Task: structure prediction
Amino acid sequence: MMNYIPLHRRWSLLIKTIPFVILIFILKYMVFFFELELLQFSSFFTAIISANIFLISFLISGVLSDYKESEKIPSDIASSIISLADEGMIILEEEQSPNAKKYLQHIQTINKAYIDWFYQKNTTLDVIHTLRELNHYFYIFQKTVPAPFISRLKQEQHILRKLINRVDTIRETSFLGTGYVIVETISFILIITMLFVNFGSVYEGLFFSTFVSLILIYMILFIKDLDNPFGYAQDEILTEEVSLKPLHDNIELIKTYIKS
Result:
């Protein structure tokens, strides 16, 4: 499902790129003004541009697969949490146990812990510890509920642990860091070279230099943005974060469970 991105965020990457493009425009004009365009445009130059675009496409395809997987994770976490709450609701309706009420309150705590963790307000160990506290309720429930019931609860607990480890891995692992280095290096060399290439006229030189630079710089920023779909806590707002709406929706849903 495509997440709605506010207009100011959809254009934020382009806005970040514009200062670099303006600088390149000014430098290209200065190079022309001082007659420093010492290089001639050749097919070899276009071949390097094509090779760099191919590398950029390779990086995008790599990070995109991780991003598509990451899109599903908050929804899967929210589903497992609600499944735990549903089971607790069954116990509450059958036995009217105060422990069942406390259990539902703890499920709400787990849901909020995950939200805070995504925003890096607590650590992975804090969330895992909150999940581990479910064992206390499993021990209490096993005295009065069937074993398969407890087994389902433990299975959801296992899924939540697995998903938090998966998100942690995606957060801490940058896709092909050496690939970023070569793309950034080639792009930097291309941009500098274009400043000194004689395109025939000042207008063509200014247009092609700024246009190609815009594409290269924008795509590098886009790849880095896409490579971290869980960057909610970063100072600079990313445009391609996966939605945490299912977890936020859970808060109100679990409240209705507790009040019933």
